[in-house]
Fold this protein.
Amino acid sequence: MKTDLTTSLAASSLSTLNFDNRFVAELPADTDLRNQVRQVHRACYSRVQPTPVAAPQLVACSAEVAELLDLQPADCATEEFVETFVGNRLLPGMDPYATCYGGHQFGHWAGQLGDGRAINLGEVVNRRGQRWALQLKGAGPTPYSRHADGLAVLRSSVREFLCSEAMHHLGVPTTRALSLLLTGELVTRDMFYDGHPRQEPGAVVCRVSPSFTRFGSFQIFSSRDELEQLRQLVNFTIRTDFPHLDAPSPAVYLQWFEEICRRTAGMIVHWMRVGFVHGVMNTDNMSILGLTIDYGPYGWLEDYNPDWTPNTTDAQRGRYRFGHQPQIALWNLAQLANAIYPLIGQVEPLEAALQVYGDCYRQGWQEMMAQKLGLEGFEPATDKLLTDELEKVLTLVETDMTIFYRKLADLSPEIDQDDDSLLTPLLDAYYRAEELTPEHKARIGGWLRSYLLRVAGSGIDHAARRRQMNAVNPKYVLRNYLAQLTIDKAETGDFALVNELLEVMRQPYAEQPGKEEFARKRPEWARHRAGCSMLSCSS
Ligand code: AMP
Ligand code: MG
């Protein structure tokens, strides 16, 4: 098969990838080998082959993820790489399969979902002994495709590829992305489900993660009373992904669940720190490892608005809005607790673990806010008032969250300034600075003075505060309009911006002179444009 990429004829290291496919080796398989949509019982996965495509082409590849697999950047430019990671060719040791899971979608039990367009290739153990599962998203139908085609389009694949890597470099736990390829085939999508289908370029992303197991992977067994399979998957997950825990037993199940609560709390604190809105926090999109997974209609807060969600499907109810994410994570954990209850048989310790989620989240959030403000720690007695008022100050007029925190680090420590001078370094954060009335300025100025007093009272050095803040408040995030501009270009066959954005997002906390255009607030044209402020699940 030909690709129009300039490919190297040199042998790549691909054939030396060391596969050790524990998931398929140790867990129950579907005995039906037909690739046909159906209910799959008493099995964790179904073997299925990716669908070959006509004219694959490399769009981008992440050098760091390649390295995790002991691959060199040159390996990613080979024809073998392209053919492999679009799903046209299997490497020795690959054993492709789709997993079975269920989930609560928008608060309602949806039954069997499963990998409808994700095909797992196997698990690579690298030279450092780390285990990485590889998964192609958009590589064709599986028994779990329900009424859909098993494919993905370039638009959503650019978004998933870039955001996985951006999140990693921001320090947010996430699944990773090795590669983004075009299939050379067209896929029909009705982006807003409003009777306007169009043909879009098809694409495949290779996702990489220690595990792709979700809350819904456990829920499906419990919902069907398939307790033996439930136990097998829990035991396997503990042995493989939580190896520091003791051999599985009811007591260890509880420790395991508590750890999932802690990890999930940690992940959500990071989302709140960087202004990330997942958009579809269904239980099938919650990783058992507390990783951000399944990048769909996610978005980044531009103006700070806790009620914002990018997902048009959820715009009315706002179930998955920014400020509701901590509660939704708890609700999802409660569904997981229900699913594993049959293995434990006691409600109280599960409730206690859910309590741990709340405690961890609260403490993690406070520590995170202290860091964002450059304080040495959060002192509830004084800092609760400070952060409560900050929340109000940020919503007085449209205020860019990312720019605000970044500029706050530059604030001069001089307290005796009038409102206007105090605000000057922050003006860039306001979408319409002319909307700032004297009352707004007085309130913001008041907050800035209390903040500076708090800083002065603790004797925090100005330069040290600035350094600390700039290490947790990113300058560069994957702004919604930047992703859309990149998609517009990529759809014309120009991938330079995908690669440039990938590069910029590798150092989100650095100043990166010459790249400031990627740190600008949303331009007016993007305010209501599809893909920038409104997204759907269609992908
Ligand atoms: P998501 O909302 O992306 O988490 O997807 C929910 C479910 O729908 C999962 O089981 C997906 O595998 C499935 N799904 C989404 N898009 C497709 C598609 N184009 N073809 C097959 N299954 C899909
Ligand atoms: Mg999903």
